[in-house]
From TrEMBL:
UniProt record similarity statement: Belongs to the synaptogyrin family.
Organism of this sequence: Drymodes brunneopygia
Major site of localization recorded for this protein: membrane
Topology in membrane: Multi-pass membrane protein
PANTHER family: SYNAPTOGYRIN, SYNAPTOGYRIN-3
Membrane spanning stretches: 38-60, 72-96
Xref: Pfam families: MARVEL
Name of the protein described by the UniProt record: SNG3 protein
Gene designation: Syngr3
GO cellular component terms attached to this protein's record: neuromuscular junction; synaptic vesicle membrane
Length: 129
């Protein structure tokens, strides 16, 4: 759920026009496209990973081989550690870029979504650990 909040808020409200003179959409995080792209990418990876491991958990009882069960558990554990690291990087990167952002009138409308993305990326670290 947290990954949906992160990538959903970035996609929905973190691309804004700086002002009426510039019609192009800019990332609200210090106009750094990489920050928005990274937040979206980590959110999507987490979302699809959760779906995959949910399906794996549904079929876990039908796996007869102990070695295959062990691999599934280790894969889940490794994926969780990897995503905890990605969320940590996402939190640091988004918070750093948000700190450097100067809020103009156009950027002020997406400020709540940016704060939500940063907050939920922090909570995602704890969840994945």
């Amino acid at each position: 759920i947290f990954s949906i909040v992160v990538f959903g808020s970035i996609v929905n409200e973190c691309y804004v026009n700086k002002d009426s003179q510039h019609p192009e959409l800019l990332c609200i995080f210090n106009e750094n496209e990489s920050a928005c792209s990274y937040g979206i990418a980590v959110g999507l990876i987490a979302f699809f990973g959760c779906i995959f491991f949910f399906v794996l958990d549904l079929y876990f009882q039908q796996i007869s081989s102990v070695k295959d069960r062990k691999r599934a558990v280790l894969l889940d554990l490794g994926f969780s550690g990897f995503l905890a690291f990605l969320w940590f990087v996402a939190f640091c990167f988004l918070a750093n870029q948000w700190q450097r952002t100067t809020l103009t009138r156009g950027f002020a409308q997406g400020a709540d979504a940016a704060r939500a993305a940063i907050t939920f990326s922090f909570f995602s670290i704890i969840i994945w650990v």
